[in-house]
């Protein structure tokens, strides 16, 4: 007797639009990640169709998953039925050991530095080849000033990132520098960045204007006992400001955070 093959679930193959090449279905967890990744600072609220398009998922799949994620508190709907990230996701994020421990230790020192200077102060954590801002203190009315909590940038693009990159393992640095050359002319060459990283290791702080120009971002690493980065602090100063005094200030603040982290068993 011939075996009967069950009909395929309509979501076993995903197509973004008629005529597209079918794509194998991602796991449920992968699709949850696609949905959550569709949101950013410029798209904090989305309609169902916008969410489907930005996540690259069929509308039927998006509709079904959104209904379940709303019930679980991972997504929320407003009075217009638009969708945003839910409180449950924020609560889970607060429990991340890699961010919570360093953020908890660093925050009092960041507050002291902010109270003294009145300038924006940030804390960043490495996430593969990017840095994520996990804490930010800034003057009221700062508006769209970079960076913002949750923002991610390539390590070489911002001071918190280059401060971290300078103290990663030689193997990781070589991998990153090779990838930088492969990505093209809009990035600094590996030779230029190699010189920059050597200067950061010698002076203990990074100076970067790639994303903050004309303002100057100055960052310093918070290291574990092996000399590897737990994160980095940065301060953003106005254009034309002398870099060295603020470099020493942010370096000393990062080292104070580092000592306290060690005393509390972090790193």
TrEMBL record:
- Keyword annotations of the record: DNA-binding, Transcription, Transcription regulation
Q: Where is the HTH iclR-type domain?
A: 26-87
Report residue spans for region: Disordered: 1-26
| Record flagged with keyword Transcription | yes
Membrane spanning residue stretches: none
Q: Identify the residues that the record assigns to the IclR-ED domain, covering every copy.
A: 88-267
Task: Fetch the Pfam families from UniProt.
Answer: HTH_IclR, IclR_C
What is the protein named? Answer: IclR family transcriptional regulator
């Amino acid at each position: 007797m011939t075996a009967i093959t069950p009909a395929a679930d309509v979501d076993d193959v995903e197509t973004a639009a008629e005529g597209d090449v079918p794509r194998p279905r991602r796991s449920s967890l992968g699709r949850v990640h696609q949905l959550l990744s569709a949101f950013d600072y410029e798209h904090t609220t989305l309609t169902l169709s916008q969410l489907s398009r930005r996540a690259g998922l069929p509308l039927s799949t998006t509709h079904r998953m959104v209904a379940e994620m709303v019930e679980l508190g991972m997504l929320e709907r407003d009075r217009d039925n638009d969708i945003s990230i839910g409180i449950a996701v924020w609560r889970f994020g607060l429990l991340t050991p890699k961010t919570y421990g360093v953020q908890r230790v660093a925050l009092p020192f960041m507050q002291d530095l902010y109270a003294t200077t009145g300038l924006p102060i940030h804390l960043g954590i490495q996430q593969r080849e990017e840095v994520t801002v996990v804490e930010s203190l800034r003057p009221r009315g700062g508006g769209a000033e970079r960076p913002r909590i949750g923002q991610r940038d390539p390590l070489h693009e911002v001071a918190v990132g280059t401060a971290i990159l300078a103290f990663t393992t030689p193997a990781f640095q070589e991998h990153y520098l090779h990838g930088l050359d492969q990505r093209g002319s809009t990035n600094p060459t590996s030779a230029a960045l190699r010189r920059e990283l050597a200067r950061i290791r010698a002076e203990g702080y990074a100076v970067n204007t790639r994303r903050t120009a004309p303002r100057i971002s100055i960052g310093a690493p918070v290291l574990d006992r092996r000399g590897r980065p737990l994160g980095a602090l940065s301060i953003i100063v106005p254009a034309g400001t002398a870099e060295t005094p603020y470099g020493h200030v942010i370096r000393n603040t990062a080292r104070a955070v580092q000592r306290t982290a060690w005393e509390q068993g972090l790193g």
